[in-house]
Amino acid sequence: MTTPVRVVLVDDQALLRAGIGTILSAHPAIEVVGEASTGAQALDVVRATRPDVVCMDVQMPDMDGLEATRRIVADEALTAAVVVLTTFNRDDYLVEALHAGAVGYLLKTSRPEQLTEAVLSAAAGEGLLSPEVTRAVIARAVSERAPTRPAAQPVVPLTEREQEVLALVARGLNNDEIAADLVVSRATVKTHVSNLLAKLGLRDRVQAVVYAHEHGLTG
């Protein structure tokens, strides 16, 4: 039996935590192992439970979610991936969250299936942005030298298949969708994504999206 993805929920509103917890716990591959109502409390809960994924609110007392994300990501003893879940559709929050190390950014108006997909994607090492904010991060990061934008550099040679995969990543497709488009296995796509990230010196799929748009590699 596959071990479920362990999740910690961080939000200062108890009703929202309960609702999010209900959605995630209904999925057989997800287990909610802890909750916190402040950023400072989140650090203690994450260190105690060692989850795979943290769903992090932004505005909270004591310590906001962006600072909590920075500290969780910077702690080498922790391996949790952070998905920011917020009511704020603001590109400054989005860019700062990604710079802090978050691998996903969803609005609280997202559909339940988007939330579960974001958690499972984060646990699998894949980033996911809410469709409503994808354009914002691309526009902001490409038009300015934002923290998530890779420094200008020559295009690193990629194989033809890696270029195809990068173009599909830039369109916002996940690994399953890319696999279906290219008629290959999900594992093959994951290998191509890992290889192209390593070649380009990029941290995650979000940076790959920005890189592809900067260098005209969107297909």
Describe the structure.
This protein has two domains: 5-140, Rossmann fold, CATH 3.40.50.2300; 150-214, Orthogonal Bundle (Arc Repressor Mutant, subunit A). 51% of the residues lie in helices and 13% in strands. It has helices at 14-25, 39-49, 65-74, 91-100, 112-123, 131-143, 160-170, 175-182, 186-200, 205-214; strands at 5-10, 30-36, 53-56, 81-86, 104-107, 128-129. Strands 2-1-3-4-5-6 form a six-stranded parallel beta sheet, sandwiched between helices. The longest helix is centred in the last third of the chain and has 15 residues, at 186-200. Residues 6-123 form the Response regulatory domain. Residues 151-216 form the HTH luxR-type domain. This is Response regulator transcription factor. InterPro entries: CheY-like_superfamily, NreC/VraR/RcsB-like_REC, Sig_transdc_resp-reg_receiver, Tscrpt_reg_LuxR_C, WalR-like.
